[in-house]
Design brief:
The protein is about 40% helix and about 15% strand. The protein has helices spanning about 20-25, 135-140, 145-175, 180-210, 220-230, 240-250, 280, 295-305, 305-320, 325-340; strands spanning about 45-50, 55, 60, 65-80, 80-90, 95-100, 105-110, 115, 260, 265, 285, 345-350. By secondary structure, it is an alpha+beta fold. About 5% of the residues are buried. It has 10 helices and 12 strands. The strands form 4 sheets. A 5-stranded antiparallel beta sheet has the order 1-4-5-6-7, with no helix packed on it.
Length: about 350
């Protein structure tokens, strides 16, 4: 492809060879815009991201292999190897991040503006072939006993890996003996899975449309199903049943608020809920008046011995005819005694703290 490049340079008529090359004569650099900061020791290069990072400005992910126009400058030396630092601007925000080389560990180190996505692991854990370090290579070259021990370890590792490799080869031969059949079987599995995913997507879209939602639905699991069965989003009774129960409760409620047992209201007409109305529960207080205890006791005695008193009064009236005054007095006393009835005690109703206890 060299013959297709333009190898000739145009020299204008006023060019003076004593000025040097064309760049010196025109006062420009050979790298043009890439060398606009060359007087500061900075060169513009095309830098490729060595690994995945997270930008500290916009918090976005920047993948490995993304290229930027970076400012390259020399910041130090590691023995005879120069250490370079690169400064570039994020393509998603105005943040700048800086990365420098690490010759000691053969890696790149983030100085500022970003953080590395940790995807590093020990290659010996997944049985990868790791190149020997410089120290190990030096020991293998200088120490014959160490070289012999190292070779014995390698031989032991190879002997342990032989059965595993044999099984892997045997499995590949049995599975991929017929390429067409294996490919057909895999495609059938893919088609079945694709149909299931499409059906589930249609159900999810129908549910989102019905619920007027715009969220991403996660796949169902057993715990979600159990929780959905435990939840009840509707009442077990209809509106008419609840209204009927409310009306019956109002009709069966007692008219007097004091008809309660130990502060508990009783509603309904069942035999268990019927309250025996007593004088104390209704607020009626029985009081005995002064001066009537003797009258009540006399009345009770007269009621029990009424027949004997009548016989005694008749005999006195017939026998004593000489003193009419005394007979009249005795007859009047007897009639007064017979006419006295048992008088009940005075009943007072106390329906509240503001009721009066006066007669």
């Amino acid at each position: 492809m060299g013959e297709r490049k333009g190898q000739n340079l145009y020299y204008p008529p006023d060019y003076d060879p004593r000025a040097g090359g064309l760049n010196k004569w025109q006062g420009t650099h050979a790298l043009r815009e890439r060398a606009r900061k060359i007087h500061l020791g900075i060169l513009i290069i095309r830098f490729e991201m060595p690994y995945n990072i997270w930008c500290d400005g916009c918090k976005n992910h920047i993948g490995m292999g993304v290229r930027y126009n970076a400012e390259k400058k020399k910041v130090g030396m590691y023995y005879s190897t120069p250490v370079y630092q690169f400064r570039m601007k994020c393509h998603l925000c105005d943040n700048h991040f800086e990365i420098k080389t690490d010759p000691q560990n053969l890696d790149y180190v983030i100085v500022s503006g970003a953080r590395r996505q940790e995807n590093r692991w020990d290659p010996t854990q997944n049985e990868q072939i790791v190149p020997e370090t410089k120290e190990t290579q030096r020991k293998l070259f200088d120490d014959a006993m160490y070289k012999l021990e190292h070779g014995a370890k390698d031989q032991k590792t190879a002997d342990e890996a032989k059965p595993v490799l044999g099984r892997l080869f045997q499995r590949n031969d049995s599975v991929w003996r017929d390429d067409f059949e294996a490919n057909s079987r895999l495609r059938a599995q893919f088609r079945t899975r694709k149909k299931e995913l499409k059906l589930q997507e249609e159900k999810d879209n129908a549910l989102l449309t019905k619920s007027s939602l715009a969220v991403a639905l996660l796949p169902e699991c057993d715990s979600d199903r159990r929780m959905a069965h435990l939840m009840r989003l509707h009442s077990s009774k209809t509106i008419h049943e609840r209204d009927k129960e409310r009306r019956s409760a109002i009709l069966n409620r007692p008219a007097l608020p004091s008809t309660s047992v130990n502060g508990r209201k009783v509603i309904g007409k069942s035999p268990d809920n019927i309250i025996k109305l007593e004088r104390n529960s209704l607020g009626i207080v029985k009081r005995s008046t002064k001066g009537r205890k003797h009258v009540v006791s006399v009345a009770n005695d007269a009621a029990t011995t009424g027949s004997s008193n009548e016989q005694r009064a008749e005999s006195q009236t017939v026998g004593d005819t000489s003193s009419p005054g005394s007979s009249l007095g005795s007859v009047a006393k007897t009639k007064e005694t017979n006419q006295i009835d048992p008088m009940p005690s005075l009943l007072l109703c106390n329906y509240g703290s503001g009721s009066s206890d006066s007669d």
